[in-house]
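G., before I forget:
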Amino acid sequence: MSDEAGGVIGKETTIRGEVIGREDLRVEGRIEGTVRLEAELIVEEGGTVAAEVESAALTVAGSFDGKATCSDLVTLRQGSHATGTITAPQVVIEDGAVFDGTLEMDVGLDAAAQGNG
Amino acid sequence: MADTRTEIGPASVVTGEIEAQEDVVVFGRVEGGVRSTAAVIVEEGGLARANIVAASVVVAGSVIGDIHATERVEITEKGRVLGNVASPRLVLQAGGAVKGQVAMSSRPPEAQPQSRTYSYRQAPGATTRRSSTTLPRKVVREEPPEPQPKEG
Amino acid sequence: MLDSMPRRREMAETVIGPRTKVQGALEGADRLVVRGLVKGTVSVDGPVLVAPGGTLEAEVAAVEVAIAGAVVGRVTARGRVEILPAARMVGDVRTPRILISDGAVFRGKVDMDFADGEGATHG
């Protein structure tokens, strides 16, 4: 595994448990459990993460189910399927991504707002 | 293609219900509800404190309320939504923000003459679903409101 | 006649399209053009035009009101009111200046006593 690639969970690999890291992690296989990353979690097309995730960033091209709390950017790519709760300051959902769940972002509005956001 | 539309000007406020069979563009403010068989566009600087039901919805301003679209919802980089979004297609641009529930695959297709682009359907037995933990959770929310107005 | 309505470049518009119905209160400082249906109340700090085909079933307060469509309701305009040939209006009008065109159908009272300090026109 080169330093550039960070970690990779191969297509035929499943991890059940807790994954902790400080470099990007690409998932082509499957993780179930908890992921804590000081970097980016990338769920590749065909990959699945069913977990509670805390990371700097998250990109889903495959399948995500769980709770993601990210300090930077979450991207749901075209063709991805995600369910659960996503909390992040910036979220990008591409046309063709499917998401069912809750987005927790700061909108700067409250239900009693009188003016524009 | 219809070339007429409704525009709520930047210094205007509508308190009540807007119902249209053409695009509705909000530069000012709407407090109440907006329904269209076409598009509803909340422009930058516009505010809709309203439930919005339309074929497609574009949010470049602020929406406090639920959005139901039969085709597509787009939230642009300045768009803000405080409320729930139900639509088969959703585009959230970088910079845009949503706080609420999002339902994309639980949205049933509606009989819409104009809805030619709506072809999304959750395929049964899709290969990405390998175990029960990856089945979409049923988002607990109230049913979409009554069907689109049909009067001309 | 419609050309005489103030058309300051910087004034934005609210247009209620022909296939739109608004039920409630519409207020603001943009010029209002009604091509569809507005039911309720209208309060505009500027001109209001009910275009041919447009319908206003409302209590209206504005600066100028030009009617070429249908109006049912009371109209108060501190500037003036023009009831144009295609107009069908039922309701009372209160304004310092009024023009009722030949061909217009109008039923209502006209009160031109507007001496409460708001009589200044902008035409």
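Chain A has one domain: 7-115. The mean pLDDT of chain A is 93.

More on Monday.
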